[in-house]
Amino acid sequence: MGNVFGTLLRRHRLRRQLTQETLAERSGVSSRSIREMERGPGRSPRPQTVERLATALELTGDERAEFTGAGHALFWASRSGRAGRSGRPGHDGSPDGDARAADPPPWRLPADLPDFVGRGEELALAHKVLDPAVGGARLVVASGPPGVGKTALAIHAGHRLAPLFPDGQLYARLRGVTGDPADPAETLAQLLRMLGVDGSALPAGVDARAGLLRTRLAGRRVLIVLDDAGGYRQVEPLLPAEGVAMIVTSRLPLTGLPGVTAIDLRPLPDTAAVDLLARVAGAERVRAEPAAATELVTVCGGLPLAVRIVAARLAARPHWAIGTLTERLTDERHRLDELRHGDLAVRPGLQLAYRGLTPATARVFALLGGLDVPSFPEWPVAALLGAGPAAGAAALEELLDARLLDDLGPDRAGQARYRFHAVTQLYARERREAEIDRSEWVAALARAAGGWLALARRAQDHLHSDRFHLDDRSGPQVAADPRAAAVAARRPVEWFEAERESIAALVQACAETGLAATARGLAGCGADFHDFQGYYDDLRRILETALAACRQAGDRLGEATMLRGLGNCLVELDDLDGGLSMLHAAHVLAERAGDPAGAALSRRHVGFTLGLVGRLDEAEAELRAAVRELRLTGQRSAEAVTLASLGFVLRQRGDGAEAVRVLRAASLVARSCGDRFAQACAARGIAGAFLVQGRVQAAQRAARRSVTLFDEIGDVIGTAQSMRVLGEALAREPHRGAEAERVLGRAAALFRERGHTWGFALTELSLGEVELVRDAEGAADRLHRSLRYWTDNQVPVLRARTFVALASAAERAGAPDARELLASAHRIYRELGMPAADELAARLATPGETAPP
C-alpha cells in the first residue's frame, strides 16, 4: 500500500510540475513529510493529510478516489500493524486476535461488471458515506424496482472502495423477494464462517451470533454487502459494529434503519443506456445506427437489465441491425418475450414481486395494467377494487413497497401521482388479460372511468372558458372522490393538465370496451379545456375516438355532438372547409335526433366560421337564427358569445353602430349569467366596433378590459387575441406606434408559444401594417408571410386585407405592382359583398374615370 500511495503522490505532483516544496505550501503538509511519503513505506498519512494533498493536486473523480483510497488504506494498514507489534490483543479484543490478524482478509465480493456504466452521483454518495475517514453512521441502502441495477451498483461500489477496507469485504444474498428468504441466523452463520469461525464454534440463536459478529469485526476496516433484503427483519440483526461499513440492496428504501443513507435508483438516462449498449453489443454498431440505438434503449425504459439483455442478443447475432431488434420490441404484446437471452430475463423478477402480493393487491396490479393510463392519483385504486379508500390505500402502499409502482410526487394540481415503469406496465397488462375476465374488467373500468368523468365535470364547472356543451349529463352519474373533487373545483386548469393524458387513454379504453357514453362524456368534458389551452391535435384524436364509439353504439345524439366538437376543432386547425362540412352535418343530425339545443349550437359555430372566411350575409343569417334558438333553449352563455360573433360580422360589414348595439346586448347577457369568458369576448368585440366608428380612445379602453378579463380567467389565447385588438387600436394614434408594436409583439409571442397559427398569422398582419406606417424595415416581408398563410388556408377576407397593406408598401417603394395588388383586393371584397370594395374602387379610379364595377 505504501508504494502504491507514494507512487501516485509522485506521479500527480510531477504531472502538475510541482516541487515538493511548492506542494507543501499549497497543502499545508511539510515538505519532509511529502518526501517520506513518496519514498515509502515507512510514513503513513492521516486521512486529513490525504484529503489536503488531493485538493492541492486538484484531483477529481476517479483519480481522487484512487488517490484517497490508497492513502486511507495505508493509514489503516499501519494502525493494524502497530496494534499487532505492540503485543495488544487483536482487532476484536480477543486473545486469539493476533493469530486471526495474520490470516489473509476475506474478499468475498462477486466479480465486478467490466461494462458498468453511469451512476456517478450514486457512487460518489456511497464513497462519502462509507469512507472510514469520515466517521459517523456508515450504512447505505440502494433501493429500486426489479432490473434497475441495485446489485450491480453495490458490487461495483465495493470494488471501487476496496482500498478503504484492507481487512476484507463480505457478501451475502438475503433472497428477500424469493419464496425462500434467508433467515437472519443463517446469514449470521455465513458471515461468521467467512471470518474464520468454524461450524463447531457457532453459537445458537440470532442474538448470540450477532454478538459474536460484532466482536469479530470490532476495530476492523471491513465492508459488508447484503444483497436483496426483503425488509427490516432480515437486516436489523446484521447491523455491524461501529466502524464497519455496510451496503444493502432492497426494493424497499429501509429508511427506518439507524443512520441509513438511502440511494433510490432510477432507470438509466438515454446517454448512459446507449453507453451500456455499446459496451456489450459493440461501439461500432451503435455508432452506425445512433437513432436506432436511442430508440432501442427508450423501448427498454432505460432499465439496465433490459438494456443488457438486448445488447447481449445483438452481440450474439452480429448480422442483426439494431433497428431489426428495435422493430421486434415495438410490439408490446411480445416485448417481454423478446427481453430474454440465455438465463437473463426481465419477466422472472416481475413474477417474483407479483407472487409476493396479497390477492387483493395482485388484482389491483392487473386491473391497473388494463387501465393503461400513463399515470394516476390515489383514488382510482379503490375504484378499481370496488372498495373503500382504506383498502385502496393499503393496496397502493403494498405495490409501492414491492417497487411495482413509482411514486412521482405531487402533480400540477398537488395530488400525489403514481405510474408503472414501461416494462412493468407490460407485465401488468399480461396479468389483466390472463387473470381478469371480461365482465369483471368492464365493471372495474366503468367504476374508474366514471370516477374520472365525475371529476372532469367538477373541473369543467369551475373552468372559465367557451362552452361547447358536448357532454350529456342526463344519465346516471358516479360520485366523485371527495378529496379529488375539491382539488378539481379549486384548481380546474391544473387538474385537467395533470389528467389530460389519462383522459385520452380512458376515452380509448372505454371506446374499445363498449362504454360509449363514458367515452363521449370524457371527450366532451375535456373539449372545453383543450380549446382553452389550444391542444387541438389532442382534442381531435379523442373526439374522433368518441365519435367512432357513438356510431358503433348507434347513439345518434352522441354522434351529432361529437361531430359538432370535431367541426370546431378542425376550424381551429385551419381546415375551414372540413370544419364547416362537419358542423353542417352535426346540425342536420341534431335536428333529426330531436335536440334543438345541439342544433342551435351547431348553427352558432357555422355562423362564426362563415364570418371568418368573409361570407357575411350567410354568417349574419346563421348567427341571428342561432341567437333566437339559443334564447329559446335557455343557453344564455352561448347566446352571449353568439351575439359577440354577430357583432364581429356586423363590424366587418361596416355597420359600426349596429355592431356596438349587438355587442352591448352580448355584454348584458354575459353579466346576467356571470360568464366572465363571454364578458371578455363582448368587450373585445366592442373594441373592434369602436375602431370602425373611429372612437379610438373608447376602443383602447374596451380592449384593455378584455385583456384584463381573459388574463384573470387564465385564457392565454383569449388574452393574446385581445392584445392584438389593443395593438391595432394603439396604432391608430401615430405617436403610440412603438407601444402598438410592443403589444402586438407580445401577442405574437403568446400565439407562437401555444402553436396557434391563425392568431399568429393575424398578428403578423397587424404588425406588418403598423411597421409599414412607421417605415420599419422588414414590414413587407412580414406581410408576405401572412399572405402565404391566408392563401394556403383559403381565407379570402384576410387575403384581401393583406393585399391592401402590400399595395401601400408598394406605393411607398414606387413599385409598379401596387395597382395590381389593390385590384386583387377589390375583386375579393366585391365577391364577398363587403363595403371595403367601394373604398378600393375609389382608390383605383384615376381622375376622369369612374370606379371599376
Helix content: 55-70%
Rg value: 37 Å
Largest sheet: 5 strands, parallel
Give the averaged pLDDT, no decimals.
Answer: 85
Distance between the termini: 103 Å
Overall body shape: elongated
Strand percentage lies at: under 5%
Number of helices in the DSSP assignment: 42
Strand order of the largest sheet: 2-3-4-1-5
Total strand segments? 9
- Helix/strand structural class: mainly alpha
Low-confidence stretches: 81-102, 847-851
Describe this structure in words.
By secondary structure, the chain is mostly helical. Helix content is 66%, strand content 5%. The protein contains 42 helices and nine strands. The protein has a five-stranded parallel β-sheet with strand order 2-3-4-1-5, sandwiched between helices. A two-stranded antiparallel ribbon has the order 6-7. The protein has a two-stranded antiparallel sheet with strand order 8-9. A hairpin with a 2-residue loop joins strand 6 and strand 7. Helix 19 crosses helix 22 and helix 38 runs parallel beside helix 40. The longest helix has 25 residues. The protein is elongated.
